[in-house]
Amino acid sequence: MKRIAVLTSGGDAPGMNAAVRAVAKVAMAKGIEVFGVKRGYLGMLHDEIFRMDGSYVSGIIDRGGTVLLTARCLEFKDPKFRAIAAENLKKRGIEGIVVIGGDGSYRGADLLSKEHGIKVVGLPGTIDNDIVGTDYTIGFDTCLNTILDAMSKLRDTATSHERTILMEVMGRHAGDLALHACLAGGGDGVLIPEAENPLEMLVYQIKERRRQGKLHDIVLVAEGVGKVQDVEDYMREKVSTEVRSVVLGHVQRGGTPSGFDRVLATKMGARAVELLEQGEGGVMVGIENNQLVTHPISFAWEGTRKYDIKKDYELAVMLSK
């Protein structure tokens, strides 16, 4: 394989730049020409494809976001637009592409591979940690640490004013961020979409803590559960303590990637190039039991997740009592 391309798609995640850098530098070291695609599939459709050199990826490993930019592209669901995008790759002699993004990005890559014979390798770039076939996604660790920093700051206010603070965090339909933040940050409760989340139990725990003399709480609420304001309204009627809700929002997406995310992204990016060099395609790279693994790219939505989130949820509930 002589020419490959790399793109970032979907929501940005810290560590994407590290993955882009690794793909470019490893490919160049192997004598493979590398092209960047601006704005994901939208840029592929609009022919925003350029040849990359070493200077383009120099100094980006510690930057959040994505230097290649990212965008949504609803047109890519239409076969005729995918054909245009594929032709923009083929006219440059691009035989393979590395797609860094979530499961929606993987689906687009899978269609490119099946319909137009382009070799694709997917790298899991999303803060949500919601891709089957990998224990961790690029950006999850950095986002988790951002949440932990916010928890520490909110705890100061919660303690000073004797409040219960409900903190809504991202994760889409997955509760990983909320659950890991509760475990790592000493949270006083957690609500995730993978569990029943009885609010009556949370109310009971808060009342028990007040009886024992604790005067503040930080409760993690995954966005997949529903609106945190609804939880706040319910809690206000059930507990005597003051209740406030905080939506952490898009600050979770940004920031300098952690060392873990940089190393993970770098190893995955290098592995993606190796797979394309070997003629592999239609696959995703993941990490399981601290080892890089590959699966068919469709495994991201057809496979079964190995992580037992309910077990960790039970632990978090036990520790928050």
From TrEMBL:
UniProt KW keywords: Allosteric enzyme, ATP-binding, Cytoplasm, Glycolysis, Kinase, Magnesium, Metal-binding, Nucleotide-binding, Transferase
Recorded superkingdom: Bacteria
Binding site for substrate: 126-128, 163, 170-172, 223, 244, 250-253
Domain Phosphofructokinase: 3-276
Catalytic activity line of the entry: beta-D-fructose 6-phosphate + ATP = beta-D-fructose 1,6-bisphosphate + ADP + H(+)
Annotated metabolic or biological route of this protein: Carbohydrate degradation; glycolysis; D-glyceraldehyde 3-phosphate and glycerone phosphate from D-glucose: step 3/4
Binding site for ADP: 21-25, 155, 186-188, 214-216
InterPro entries: ATP_PFK, ATP_PFK_prok-type, PFKA_ATP_prok, Phosphofructokinase_CS, Phosphofructokinase_dom, PKF_sf
Coiled-coil residue windows: none
Binding of Mg(2+), residues: 103
Cofactor(s) the record lists: Mg(2+)
Activity regulation, per record: Allosterically activated by ADP and other diphosphonucleosides, and allosterically inhibited by phosphoenolpyruvate.
Gene Ontology CC, one term: 6-phosphofructokinase complex
Active site: 128 (proton acceptor)
Enzyme Commission identifier(s): 2.7.1.11
SUPFAM superfamilies per the UniProt record, alphabetical: Phosphofructokinase
Residues bound to ATP: 11, 72-73, 102-105
Pfam families: PFK (PF00365)
Record's subcellular location: Cytoplasm
An individual GO BP term: canonical glycolysis
Gene Ontology MF terms in the entry: 6-phosphofructokinase activity; AMP binding; ATP binding; fructose-6-phosphate binding; identical protein binding; metal ion binding; monosaccharide binding
Subunit structure of this chain's protein: Homotetramer.
Known function: Catalyzes the phosphorylation of D-fructose 6-phosphate to fructose 1,6-bisphosphate by ATP, the first committing step of glycolysis.
NCBIfam families in UniProt: PFKA_ATP (TIGR02482), PRK03202.1 (NF002872)
Family stated for the protein in its record: Belongs to the phosphofructokinase type A (PFKA) family. ATP-dependent PFK group I subfamily. Prokaryotic clade 'B1' sub-subfamily.
Protein name in the entry: ATP-dependent 6-phosphofructokinase
Protein source organism: Cetobacterium ceti
